[in-house]
Amino acid sequence: MTGIPSQGRPGLADATEEPNFGEPRIDDSGETGACVRIRGPRRADVPILADLMSGANVVQGLSVMPFISEYEVERLLQDSQCRYWLIAEQAGLPAGWAFLEWGAGRWRRIASVGIGIGDAQAGLGLGRRLMTSLLRVGFGYLDMHKIELVVYVDNLAAIRLYESLGFVHEGTKRGNAIREGRFVDAHVMSVLQSDWLDTGSEVAPGS
User: Fold this and answer.
1) Per residue, what are the HEC states of the chain?
2) What pTM value is reported for the model?
3) Is the pLDDT of residue 154 over 60?
4) Which residue has the higher pLDDT, 100 or 198?
5) How far apart are CA 47 and CA 157, in angstroms?
6) What integer is the mean pLDDT of 25-44?
7) Domains of the chain, residue spans
8) Which residues contact 139 (CB under 8 A, 6 or more apart)?
């Protein structure tokens, strides 16, 4: 899972992995909590996002060390040249985040996904809300050709969600990242703009 951008090659963020730890942080039920809306980030979100990203379950899926600082979150949010962020707001406060990250040149229209839901907000369908809005913006406004992600092979709930949104499996990366002292495999999944348009998605930004 989770929403810390990669410093690797353009077009693929290793931060998109969302491992399964009993109570998945992304579900595919389609149910959402009260007072949820999708919006862009704000300066005031930084301290809350830092806390969300430091949650015990969330940290398991990050590509950075635990205890992320507000300074690092602020830096990530400020880099808007090749990154687009969305915030899931519940009861007036950030509850989750997602972003698209893309490269330059021949990778300009290939984007990767990073997504995370706070520990306390797990199981409310916020992941689906974020992903549908992110796909709408990515394909309908940024004109991406392909959106891809990486997900741990044992995160079945997230895989089901991505499949339901049109993502297909491209392959498996062996020993993709270290987690609790062990290297874990991860699937690469993607959806093309043409495939997404064929689904007739009508999920509007901010819905």
Assistant:
1) CCCCCCCCCCCCCHHHCCCCCCCCCCCCCCCCCCCEEEECCCHHHHHHHHHHHCCHHHHCCCCCCCCCCHHHHHHHHHCCCCEEEEEEEECCEEEEEEEEEECCHHHCCEEEEEEEECHHHCCCCHHHHHHHHHHHHHHHCCCCCEEEEEEECCCHHHHHHHHHCCCEEEEEEEEEEEECCEEEEEEEEEEEHHHHHHCCCCCCCCC
2) 0.78
3) yes
4) 100
5) 28
6) 66
7) 14-198
8) 147, 193, 196, 197
Residues 128-147 pLDDT 10s: 999 999 999 999 999 999 99
Burial 68-100 (b: 16+ CB within 10 A, else e): beeeebeebbeeeebbbbbbbbbeeebbbbbbb
Two structure tokens written together for 41: 């980030």
Quickly tell me which residue has 């602020």 as its tokens.
74
Quote the CA–CA distance of 78 and 76 in Å, as a whole number: 5
Q: Which fold has domain 14-198?
A: Aminopeptidase (3.40.630)
